[in-house]
Protein: Glutamate racemase
Amino acid sequence: MDANSPILFFDSGVGGLSVLEPTRALLPNAPFIYVADNAGYPYGKRSEAEIASRVPALLGRLVERFHPRLAVIACNTASTIALDQVRSALDLPVVGTVPAIKPAAELSKNRVIGVLGTEATVRQPYVDNLAAEFAADCTIVRHGAPDLVDLAEAKLAGEDVTVKAVRAAAQPMFDAEAGDRIDVGVLACTHFPLLLSELEQAFPGVTWIDGGPGIARRIAYLTREQPWPSEPEEGIMVFTAEPRSPLLGTLAQYGIGDARTI
Ligand code: DGL
Structure:
């Protein structure tokens, strides 16, 4: 194993930064490439067939180009639809991000859990299976919130995002049947932890579960015996289309020193 071989993070946009951040906290010297498939954004509005053909093919090309030691699909939409296809197409460990329903069920006193994701994620059988396996005695209220994805992108591009706008995007979940009893909400889209403070202000009684730190621990475990460079290095961000330009300023906070479009 080459100490300079990076970890590759993949999402449709900036959402995967919510997985990158806790990973860097555990593995500060890990070299990384962060890929935002912004040409395909938003994944949540795409069909299963589109995601299942686009994501494994794109990841295959990225792996050939960057030779990562491990790939992280830092996107619930892509993971719940295409994780198996990606794993069988790539000859390296692949970590996915799937809704954190298990820890939510461990916490919920009311036994009513909200799953806030993209429209594509919340309709996946993968979510039915997680609910049946880990939260069989809970009512699961699902809501696809595409506006929240756009708000997270806007926030990272330095635009003003109000609590009011965040509340409006998530409110239908609480207005649905049993929604008024939701005490734990699963952030089932990697963009949403980027709006955690706004969500907490908008819905004060709700505990939000972010799967990011658990994914980071999994990455650290899978790479536990591998060599790393002796010093931290700046990471590289790769876009598949021209990004919004103010975003580049924000990326430095995530240890990203170079951005390119392929
Ligand atoms: N960040 C993504 C997710 O976790 C996808 C957002 C989108 O492109 O719609 O689902």
Notes: The longest strand covers residues 112-117.
